[in-house]
């Protein structure tokens, strides 16, 4: 059996605003084994990115982790001091954010930004720092890595900036890489290149990956397990083959039906009616019930418990009570 690297129990991250409490993450349970890729899937606003920044200990004001455990190698990250978390971030857990142009400093050379991550976490000399940074750029297949080391972010294409961000995240060889929508705004060919890169690096560096995406096609190509998230909760969790071939939760089925498929001929992809539940005033009972074609009276009254089926599949739906 694979060893657990990350084990999250009943995580709740709320934001306290003048309009009310936003329950962005509201009782999440997920785990990632060593050298595995977990896909965290759902529409925008479901709480995927907040889950990621909760793991990193970067929840901004007025947000707060109010409950739960985040066990990394058996240690609860929520019990760590700010200094301890600074030592963990970048060295043992690293994150690639959605928009590299927002994360890269436009007035500092890309190589110097990668070098800064090395200086923070490793005690090495100046020449070795530069060598490690260039090697990180080469690792992510950056063309002319030595030349690019001395260039600024605006001189990079979108795909190259994303590769630079991945190089920065991997330069200290973390155990866990969190990739938050790493292919957003990239064309299809570059998307495939970034995903192949992540897959190869996972095998080469023996790291685990938490891949956050709304695209189940991406999940099919790279992930070993998938957790489907809706309105702050995990509604389905299992190995990727089971979820994609035989989805159990109506929301998962809706996500799959919304993907255009060549084998369906002229049949049009179906959209899920309505929009994501209001995180301040979510519906009573199952949060998906206003959009669900299978909704019953109990769905409107009671929150479904997550059920373990067939030893490995988890689903939170009254259809499987």
Q: How is the biggest beta sheet arranged? A: 8 strands, mixed
Strand order of the largest sheet: 6-7-8-3-9-10-12-11
Share in helix: 25-40%
What sequence of helices (H) and strands (E) makes up the elements? Answer: EEEHEEHEHHHHHEHEHEEHHHEE
Helix segment tally: 12
Please tell me how large the radius of gyration is: 20 Å
Helix-strand layout with pairing:
Elements: E1 4-17, E2 20-33, E3 37-41, H1 48-56, E4 63-72, E5 75-76, H2 82-88, E6 93-96, H3 100-103, H4 110-121, H5 126-139, H6 145-149, H7 158-170, E7 176-180, H8 188-205, E8 208-213, H9 216-222, E9 225-230, E10 233-239, H10 240-245, H11 250-257, H12 297-301, E11 306-309, E12 313-316
Parallel strand pairs: 3-8, 3-9, 6-7, 7-8
Antiparallel strand pairs: 1-2, 1-4, 4-5, 9-10, 10-12, 11-12
Name some characteristics of this structure:
alpha/beta; 4-stranded antiparallel sheet; 321 residues; 8-stranded mixed sheet; 2 domains; 12 helices; Rossmann fold; single chain
Characterize the structure shown.
This protein is of the alpha/beta class and 321 residues long. The protein folds into two domains: 4-92 and 176-190 and 207-320, P-loop containing nucleotide triphosphate hydrolases (Rossmann fold); 102-173, no CATH class. Helices cover 34% and strands 25% of the residues. The chain has twelve helices and twelve strands. It has helices spanning 48-56, 82-88, 100-103, 110-121, 126-139, 145-149, 158-170, 188-205, 216-222, 240-245, 250-257, 297-301; strands at residues 4-17, 20-33, 37-41, 63-72, 75-76, 93-96, 176-180, 208-213, 225-230, 233-239, 306-309, 313-316. Strands 6-7-8-3-9-10-12-11 form an eight-stranded mixed β-sheet, with helices on both faces. α4 packs across α5 and α4 (110-121) packs parallel to α7 (158-170). The longest helix has 18 residues, at 188-205.
């Amino acid at each position: 059996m694979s060893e657990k690297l990350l084990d999250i129990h009943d995580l709740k991250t709320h934001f306290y605003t003048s309009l009310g409490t936003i329950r962005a993450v509201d009782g999440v349970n997920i785990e990632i084994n060593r050298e595995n890729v977990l896909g965290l899937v759902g529409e925008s606003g479901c709480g995927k990115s907040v889950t990621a920044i909760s793991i990193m200990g970067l929840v901004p004001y007025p947000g707060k982790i109010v409950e739960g455990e985040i066990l990394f190698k058996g240690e609860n990250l929520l019990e760590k001091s700010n200094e301890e978390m600074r030592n963990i971030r970048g060295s043992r857990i690293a994150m690639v954010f959605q928009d590299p142009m927002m994360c890269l400093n436009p007035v500092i050379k890309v190589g110097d930004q990668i070098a800064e991550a090395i200086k923070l976490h490793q005690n090495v000399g100046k020449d070795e720092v530069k060598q490690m940074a260039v090697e990180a750029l080469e690792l992510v297949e950056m063309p002319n890595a030595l030349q690019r080391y001395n260039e600024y972010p605006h001189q990079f294409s979108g795909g190259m900036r994303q590769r630079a961000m991945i190089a920065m995240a991997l330069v200290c060889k973390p155990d866990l890489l969190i990739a938050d929508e790493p292919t957003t705004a990239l064309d299809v060919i570059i998307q495939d290149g970034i995903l192949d890169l992540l897959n190869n690096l996972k095998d080469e560096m023996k790291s685990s990956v938490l891949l956050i995406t709304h695209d189940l096609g991406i999940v099919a190509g790279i992930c070993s397990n998938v957790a489907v998230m809706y309105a702050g909760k995990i509604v389905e969790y299992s190995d990727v083959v089971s979820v994609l071939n035989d989805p159990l939760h109506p929301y998962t089925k809706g996500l799959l039906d919304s993907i255009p498929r060549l084998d369906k001929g002229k049949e049009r992809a179906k959209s899920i009616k309505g929009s994501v539940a209001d995180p301040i005033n979510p519906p009573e009972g199952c949060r998906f019930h206003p959009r669900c074609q299978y909704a019953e009276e109990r769905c409107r009254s009671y929150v479904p418990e997550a059920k373990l089926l067939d030893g490995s599949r988890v689903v939170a739906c009254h259809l499987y009570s």
